Amino acid sequence: MSRRRNGLMSDDLKEELAKELGVYDIVKTEGWGSVSSRDCGNLVKLAIKKAEESMVQNKNF
Known about the structure:
Elements: H1 11-21, H2 24-30, H3 37-59
């Protein structure tokens, strides 16, 4: 079975979230594989939160 290569988030968004959570230095020096699973989970939570906020904001226009 092949692995999915096209992610749902752009690299720019992932980097923005990593900066916000303070793990960007790890990503730049060691790559995404060195980011802890807890931090990856927090990245996903933050991405969902931002998406929900964006949906609410767009609905109000």
